[in-house]
Amino acid sequence: MKILKHYILAQFLKTYLLMVVAMVGVFLVIDAFERLDEFVTKHGTFWDFVLYFLYKIPFILSYMAPQAILLATVVTLVGLARNNELTAMRACGISLTGITQPILSTSLIIALGLVFLNEFVTPKTSENMNYIFYVKVRGHENLHQASHQNLWLRSPNGSIWNMETFDPVNNVMYDVSLFYYDREHPVMRQRIDAQKVSWTGDQWVFEKGAMRFFSPGGLDKTQFFETQVFPVMEKPEDFNKVQKRPEEMSAREMYQNILIKESEGFDTARNRVDLHHKLSYPFISVVLALVGIPLSIRSSRRGGLLFCIGISLAIGFLFFFFYATSISLGQKGTFSPLLAAWGPCLLFITVGLYLLLTLDSEKVLPI
């Protein structure tokens, strides 16, 4: 029994590694042709081009792992069935659970490895990848200028910042507006506008702006200034926290960001969907393996390898359709974050278990 499990595990791992290498290779080749023109026209160096794709590999691995698991499951089991090894194992009294346990266990280990990868490796490599593409190739002043041209931040004291751009390297903001509201009534009492705001090391210096004061009836008075220092609570790191893209953040950072936004009074439903999406995606590998096992065995009775792969890929496509739709509905507030990210997984786990229980039946439905 132990030898057979090792044999199945070896077959599965060999197929999985082959699928991963093939998928990552195809992804890199296609992406390289898409990016090559921009690297050449923007005078990016060859070393930057190579580093960009090296840094992208962890992201591709985590993205393609579920599809690779599904294909590896199908190819392994269909290969065993075609050589009558599966029949021989079951004739010797080995249950289907015993035969497929190495595949499911390995899929779970791979899923946990992807969680580790997404938590400690992918955020840093994604940040380096984006820095090469947006700063060194496209010529943005900083990494985050590309996606955060209009930044908002609520202060713990109730004031609200808005700026056109923020340079985290030099700690300089441009086209800044700072709004102060009454704590008891949602009425603006003061507004500060400045063309430039710079951090000196212990305070923010506002340059070329105006200070407007409001009364219940409307604008009360306006004072213009060339240079002015205002007592504000925020420091540069407070603005740096909101600059990262989702792929550049670990689950811990995303959760801390949610807590900060909640303390500032923002709606964090969409952020919680992104967090659960990040956590649930690696475990799609286990879901697809569980669904792929009975589908592989069933379809191997009716057709060849290509037929089995086609059936399994169709089911995989169906799962990702449901998954993407559920995530979209969660971001729009129709589903709760937990249901949006984990609901499709639970649904297809149920489908996979049902197909396993009815595997020896010639009918899909026991009627």
Automatic annotation (TrEMBL):
Keywords: Cell membrane, Membrane, Transmembrane, Transmembrane helix. It comes from the Bacteria. This is Putative Permease, YjgP/YjgQ family. It is found in: Cell membrane. The chain crosses the membrane at residues 12-33, 53-81, 93-117, 279-297, 304-323, 335-357. The keyword Membrane applies. InterPro entries: LptG, LptG/LptF_permease. One of its GO terms (biological process) is lipopolysaccharide transport. It is a multi-pass membrane protein. It holds the Pfam family LptF_LptG. The keyword Membrane applies. One of its GO terms (cellular component) is ATP-binding cassette (ABC) transporter complex.
